[in-house]
Amino acid sequence: MTTKQTDTRSALLNAACQLFAKHGYSSVSTRMITELAGVAHSSIHYHFDTKEALYTEVFRQVFDFDNALDYEELMRQEPYVLKTPEGKSYAIHRIVRDYFKRNVFFRETWQRELVIREMYEHSAVYVQLTDTIFRFQANRRREFFHLLKPDATPLEAYFWGNIPESQGLLYLTLWPSTEQFHDADFMEELKEHVIKTTSIMMIQLLDLPIPEMLR
User: Fold this and answer.
1) How far is CA 51 from CA 17, 46, 131, 140, 143, in A?
2) Contacts of 69 (CB under 8 A, 6+ apart)
3) What CATH number does residue 42 fall under?
4) Residues 74 and 177 in one domain
5) pTM
6) Average pLDDT of every residue of the chain
7) 90-102, pLDDT tens digit by residue?
């Protein structure tokens, strides 16, 4: 891909991010996206084929899949991390922290608005997003749970794997109003508290020791 093509693709993604977050999937046309991006209308089909594919790619960008930390990546980084109960607790905390930093405590307001809109006003692409993004993350954690507890039941794995999403959705929804009444220091403390308590919950459900960093 040439530099010009890369710039065009980035311009389309940036425009789509802002428009989808502000207006929702159904209210945004491909013409609106290309006009805001300042590129030819045909470019959206060249780079993404359909509006649905572009919307899915926007979510992949928001959740930053390329830099996500799951248990396999953690084991590549630290091969012996799951050899001890303490190491398993540490691994859970690392994965939970990564999830919240990438998927809940977004850098940009539009990212949070986009995710909340999709969660509460399901678009025509919701099923596809669930299969490729939302369910994928929870399923990876369920695999991790079975690695930590091979005799776990499907119900146990389902509940454990979805804890971060349930906590994340709660705080995504509460965040705008919470920010109105508390300063930046409080918000940073709240982020750490959410990560800490979610990690402890998931660790305790596996009867693992609480790491010193979380006490």
Assistant:
1) 12, 11, 17, 28, 32
2) 94, 95, 98
3) 1.10.10.60
4) yes
5) 0.84
6) 90
7) 999 999 999 998 8
